[in-house]
Please model this.
Amino acid sequence: MQNNRHLIFSSFILKIIAMIAVLSDHVAYAFLSSSSPLYFGMRIFGRLAFILFAFFLSEGIIYSRNKDSYLLRLLILYVVMQVLIVAVNLYDSSFEFSNVFFTLFAVGSFLVYFEKKKWSHVHYLVPLLTLLVINYLNVYQNFSTLYIYTGDYHFYGIAVIIGFYLARKFASYLLNRYPLVSDLEDGDIEEDIRRKKQVIMNASSSVSLLLITFIWYILSVFNMSDIAMNMQSYAIITIPLLILYNGRLGHNGKTFRIVYYGFFPVHLILLALISLLI
Model:
């Protein structure tokens, strides 16, 4: 009998959940009253989105065969989103949004630097250094005009992505040092060991998320957090999904990849157009 049958969610399923969650979050933010219970529920569900995007970014950086192409896709999405954010702000200055793809691209570039181990290629560090400076000036020096140029989730988002990456590296180190064995006498022994490894990877990622979210919550208690943790602390509801991840891609055709990468800017454009019509 196969062990670890609880590993039921592929990458495809979790990415679908992430897209639904971000849509839920933005629909509630744009169209519902903040005093509505539905608003609260939809925005809590929306806390899943960034965590899953961050999780798959850390995986993508490690497993991507062409890391520069991976970064280029993120850079294109960052530029598209930044143009949209600036255009909306010029149309109505009361609309201010930060750019989640700045966070994803900048930290992704930082991780690629360490994955490639080409230490002279310091240009991979420039996006993160730029992000840190802009976030710092906006959050701690009150340069409010820089908000539309910041990365979404600020320093918390940076910590979550790096935390996932380090958690996976630490788990890999332990698994290499202390190899697992299968307790199956017959059947797919190789798959059994792979699933056991996945359980450890999932646990490591979950602990990382829990610790970072807890630290930022404590910071928020003392008014030292860079984001409002009264809502973001619900990010820990992502942990059950991480625990159930089976490490498989699932459906990963070209059409789905286009939908996944294009969903964020396209759904924001559609929501903006709907808000203008009603």
Remarks:
- The chain has one domain: 11-277.
- The chain has a mean pLDDT of 91.
